[in-house]
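User: Please fill in residues for this 253-position structure.
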C-alpha cells in the first residue's frame, strides 16, 4: 500500500534569507555565552553564505565551532535563547515559501523543516509557523549539559536524506510521492530522495542539475545576483562593524 506524501523544506536560504546559525550566534553573544570574535566569525560566514552559498568544509567548520561553544552549557540556558533566535529568523522568512508549505498542508501533505541546524531551533520554529515537525541535528546531553557531541545523524548531505528516510518509515510517508525544497548542491541527496524536487534560489551547481533533470525552480532572492563578494578589506570592515555595534548595545544595557 502506498503511503501518503509529505513536503520537506531546508531552512537557510530556502525558508529564510541568510543563516540561522548567525541568529543563534547573535543571541548567544547577547546572552554572554560567546565572545565577540566568535560573533564576528558568525557574521562573516552569514555574509559569505548569502552571497555564494556554503561548502562542505565551511559547514564542518561552523558545526565544530558551534559544538565547541555549547560544550558544557546548560540546556536550560540555550533553551532561553529561543525567543531571541526566533526574533532574528522570523522577519527573514520568505512569505512565498510559507505559502508554498501551507498549500501542501491544505492538500493533506504534512510539512517538515529539514536542516543541519539544531533540532531544538528547528522544532521550535516549526511549531511557531504551523509546520508538522522538523528534522535537525541533535546534540548529546549529560546531566543537563551539552557535551559538544552530536547524536544520531548530522543532518547535512547524505545524513539529511537518511534522517528523512527514517522519518518516512516511522510516519508511513511515500518519498517517491513527496516534495523536497532546497537552495544548495549540498542537498542533492535530500532532493533525489523525493519524487518532486524543487530548487529554491539555487546555487550555481544546483541550478545546473535542476536544468539538466527538469526540476522545478523557484527564484525570488536577488542579493546574490546584485552583489559580488567584495574585497577582503571591505568584508572584514563590515563584519567588524556588526560586532562592534552589538557590543555597544550590550554595554549600554
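Assistant: Residues filled in for all 253 positions:
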Amino acid at each position: 500500500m502506498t503511503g501518503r506524501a509529505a513536503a520537506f523544506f531546508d531552512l537557510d536560504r530556502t525558508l529564510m534569507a541568510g543563516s540561522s546559525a548567525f541568529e543563534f550566534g547573535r543571541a548567544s553573544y547577547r546572552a554572554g555565552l560567546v565572545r565577540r570574535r566568535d560573533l564576528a566569525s558568525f557574521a562573516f560566514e552569514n555574509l559569505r553564505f548569502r552571497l555564494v552559498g556554503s561548502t562542505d568544509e565551511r559547514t564542518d567548520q561552523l558545526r565544530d565551532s558551534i559544538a565547541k561553544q555549547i560544550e558544557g552549557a546548560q540546556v536550560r540556558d540555550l533553551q532561553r535563547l529561543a525567543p531571541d533566535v526566533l526574533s532574528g529568523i522570523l522577519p527573514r522568512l520568505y512569505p512565498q515559501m510559507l505559502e508554498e508549505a501551507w498549500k501542501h498542508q491544505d492538500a493533506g501533505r504534512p510539512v517538515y523543516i529539514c536542516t543541519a541546524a539544531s533540532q531544538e531551533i528547528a522544532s521550535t520554529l516549526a511549531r511557531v509557523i504551523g509546520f508538522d515537525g522538523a528534522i535537525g541535528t541533535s546534540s548529546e546531553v549529560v546531566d543537563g549539559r551539552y557535551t559538544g557531541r552530536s547524536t544520531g545523524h548530522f543532518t547535512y548531505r547524505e545524513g539529511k536524506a537518511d534522517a528523512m528516510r527514517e522519518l518516512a518509515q516511522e510516519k508511513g510517508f511515500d518519498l517517491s510521492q513527496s516534495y523536497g525544497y532546497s537552495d544548495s548542491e549540498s542537498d542533492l541527496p535530500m532532493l533525489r530522495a523525493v519524487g518532486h524536487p524543487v530548487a529554491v534560489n539555487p546555487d550555481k551547481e544546483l541550478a545546473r542539475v535542476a536544468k539538466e533533470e527538469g526540476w522545478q525552480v523557484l527564484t525570488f532572492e536577488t542579493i546574490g545576483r546584485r552583489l559580488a563578494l567584495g574585497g577582503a578589506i571591505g568584508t572584514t570592515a563590515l563584519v567588524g562593524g556588526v560586532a562592534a555595534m552589538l557590543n555597544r548595545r550590550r554595554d549600554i544595557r
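For context: Strands lie at 7-9, 111-118, 133-142, 145-151, 179-182, 196-200, 216-218.
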